Amino acid sequence: MIPAPLLDVQNLMRSFGGGKSLLGRPRPVINAINDVSFQVAAGETLGLVGESGSGKSTVGRAVLQLDPADSGSVRFAGTELTILGPQQMKPFRRRMQMIFQDPYSALNPRMKVGRFVAEPLVVHGVAGGSALTDRVADLFRLVGLDPSFMTRYPHEFSGGQRQRINIARAIALEPAFIVADEPITALDVSIQAQIINLFQDLQDQMGLAYLFIAHDLSMVRYLCQRVAVMLRGRIVEIAPTENIFSDPQHPYTRSLLAAIPVPDPDRKRPDRPPFAVSENIPPREAGMIEVSPGHFVLEHKK
Amino acid sequence: MKHFLTDLYRSKAGLVGAVLIMVIVLVSLLAPVLDLPDPTRGDLRARLVGPTWTGLFTPGAHPLGTDEVGRDILSRLINGSRITLLVATTAVVLGGIVGTILGILAGYKGGLVDRILMRLVDIQLAVPLMLLALLVVAALGPSLRNVVLVLALTSWIRYARIIRAQVLSLREREFVQSAHAIGASTLRIMFLHILPNVLTPALVVGTLELARVIIMDSALSFLGLGVQPPTPSWGRMLADGRVYISSAWWAVTFPGLAIVLTVLSVNLFGDWLRDYFDPKTRSAK
After folding, report:
1. In B, which residues are within 8 Å of A180 by CB distance?
2. Which range marks the domain in which residue B125 is found?
3. In this model, does residue B250 exceed pLDDT 50?
């Protein structure tokens, strides 16, 4: 990688559980993310896919230091974030934001949405008074909402509108990088396309980089330049999007691709041996092999 | 607000409670202009006079009778309601403020702060509240201020527990995460994102606490540790009148009824309020 990446994540680890229960029985340790490394370049979209519980969201939260990792390194624009205290972290919060999965839970039900979108600007002292109102109105227009909605409460909006409000809040500080944690999963299919287009428009206008967490591979194919596939807390394959779709290497990637529905009732799904996760847990010592430029896959049984 | 009123109108119990509360509050507020006899001045020639239903319209008569030193019971009830409502609302609001803040602190901060605060609550719950109140009043001496303080002291734990439980679930909601992600301070998150979302449960606890505190205030007065005579208070009237229960039933019955009606109406209204703000029961209607 010739230009330094905007985000460089190395050997990230995070486990839950452990210790002992009240009765002295040891609690099982779950490695939610296990030795995860990847880079995101400025203006790039990296897709992060995998089944539920594979650790995708934990990676997103660990990158933003919302739920810090146990070990490993997260470098943003050359600065190591994992060693920063809350005060030192604050300037970086301006440059990296998050969009959440559930647009209903992501809005404060007791706060007018205009104030909610304005909050990051207030917290960072960027704007105040009428300049603030103007800025928020601009943000509303930017995400395709009428600025007159500013004085309403969240329950008056649909899911798609709420997600637009969340996006407006996330881009308020003009960040360089956004973690989008399954931002369209909770939306209607017709709304999904609108939100995806909004993501692309914003990327074109603001040069945003995304870490796009998803399990809908067709959306990922459409939106992302590169894709990382996660299984049981590990990245098993990471490659440019076209390589993943045309030349998947890891059996888990293949099984994910085979699961994409085809909108043709005459085409029966081909019989294939089901992918058993339990038999394919990546061995601890497995390393990444580069099969073609930029296409890495975790060592696995053939 | 409109929906609030129509829903209240549709609920019989809630409406009865609300109307009764309004009447009680109105009457106690209007006490100075009602031209009542002095509640503290006795008339030994008119001891334990029975109620006369026509007395309402005759000046100088006693519609609800008189007590053992000839004081007008109606006047004492109405004037006593001022004290009772003042003591109860102040105590509940005071306990509510302290309990809500500590509940948010315990729920949001977690860890050591949470453990200390919750064990404190547990300890206090293990001691009978009446005993605690007696101890404090006995130590500090009975006065209006001390009664309010002691009632607030028995009240904050209920808020703290319920608010803490609410905060524990709120804390994990994505809008709180989002506030972290923009770099909002802990204070900002607690007051702008958590507090507005726990005000509803706090309000409901408040109405239920109001009923409990009124009873407790009466009990303290009954035991002689409440507001001191000659200031009229319902519990005190009950205590003084009980000696004559076989010969002058009105001396205990009317203060008793006043307590029952007030507590009942506050409870009815509080129950309805709880259902109204609970989205589950509201959508079921």
Report:
1. none
2. 61-284
3. yes
